[in-house]
Amino acid sequence: MSSFEFIFTLFGLVMGLALTEVLGGFARAVKRHGPARLGLLTPVVSLFMLYEITDFWSDAWEVRDQLPTGMPTLLISVVITGLYYFASVLVWPEEGDAAWDDLDGWMLGQKRQLLLSVFASNVVTVAGLSAIGQGQSAFTPTPFAIGWMALYFGLLLAAAFAPGRRLTLIALALVLAMYATALAMQLAGG
Predict the structure, then answer these.
(1) Domain residue limits at 19
(2) Count of domains in the chain?
């Protein structure tokens, strides 16, 4: 077993559980009988979380050869994946919760903790990669990447602190547009 496989076992388990939380919420929403107002905000946050977790998983794979093995890397991985799992648990209410009657209302009450957890996991990731990548070109961000991260972090904070549904949706729609742009750039080979 390589050092990355050792670290990735824990990482993959927790990230897989995070994906399961979001996908399970979607499934419960589809299966739900009775009055339920799905709204727009919770499904948009779910899409955001699904892409965010998948993108992070992909990024971890890309830097696997540069990650040192040891307790610091494991602890940083636990913090990052723990924050993603915590955020994922907040996307959908528990079964039987009255919040299923108004999912936009539920999300408005959870979005700050959820989005700040994702924000924190990304800050820890960037700080961790910067710390272990001193002098390694794989971890030296370009001016474009720095601007991209600044825009992403700004939109996350805007969505977290936006008063109400509409401004939150606008900020999240812009983040999703960034994801679509990044995906199109990757598919185009850039």
Answers:
(1) 3-187
(2) 1
Q: Which residue has the tokens 């955001």?
A: 48
Note down pLDDT in tens along the chain; length 190 residues.
Answer: 676 677 778 888 899 999 999 999 988 888 876 656 678 999 999 999 999 999 998 888 887 777 777 788 888 889 999 999 999 999 999 888 888 888 999 999 999 999 999 999 999 998 888 777 655 555 677 899 899 999 999 999 999 999 999 999 999 999 999 999 999 998 998 5
- Whole-angstrom distance, CA of residue 180 vs CA of residue 182: 5
If you count them, how many residues does the chain have? 190
- The CA distance from 47 to 87, in Å, is 13
Asked if residues 89 and 21 have their Cβ atoms less than 8 Å apart, the reply is: yes
H-type helices in the chain, by residue range? 3-31, 41-62, 71-89, 103-132, 143-161, 165-187
SS3 70: coil
Rounded CA-CA distance 135/39 in Å is 47
For the beta carbon of residue 100, count every other beta carbon within 10 angstroms: 20
